[in-house]
What we know:
- The protein is an all-alpha fold.
- The protein is built from 9 helices and no strands.
- It has helices at 3-17, 30-44, 51-56, 58-61, 64-86, 96-118, 146-161, 165-194, 196-204.
- Helix 5 (64-86) packs antiparallel against helix 8 and helix 7 packs antiparallel against helix 8.
- It is globular, with a radius of gyration of 18 Å.
Amino acid sequence: MTPKIKSILLFIALGVVLPLIGRLSGLLDPRIILLITASALVFLTQPTPQAEEAKAQADTDKQSFWWITAMSLLSLHVPLIEWAYFHDTHTQYDWTFPLGAAILTFSIVFRVWAIQTLGRFFTATVQIVEEHQVVQSGPYALVRHPSYTGAYLSYVGTGIMLEAWWGLAFAIVAMGIAYYQRITAEEATLRSHFGEAYELYCQKTKRLIPFVF
């Protein structure tokens, strides 16, 4: 079994199966199948996260790898627990399921687009790789951190799809904290390495939401 497959199975086990351990029948719900599929697609199209890499890049990563890992799991746990144990899981409401599923699907497509555009410069931790460049094409012409925009939207879509409003609020705050840590570390590293070139790019683009933030 490859490291990438192992990471996918581990994330699904810890992020989706664990919070549903008391309601395993929920794993057959279309919403949960979609969530598992989306998670697998993200892991298949990005570098395999490695704890050793996070340790080696500690000076530039500033623990953001661990913040994102922890908050990502919690931001799945809370909505899933709310949905599985405090809702009627057999009900699929008229607008929340299709809207949430549409947002989740768009978020994955947008994130994969960002990952593919950045290519080998996309890493699980904050670091400068050989011949690193400031990529400004594709989604990077819209925002500086489109992969994080996509990931953030995936939690919004999940919360809406499951009608887990408290879980949605938690995920928005938790992932906001995680991505604040990552973006702060990442932009400091890029400014230090690229100087004026990155500053000019920052003047033309927003961080996560085009024309807004």
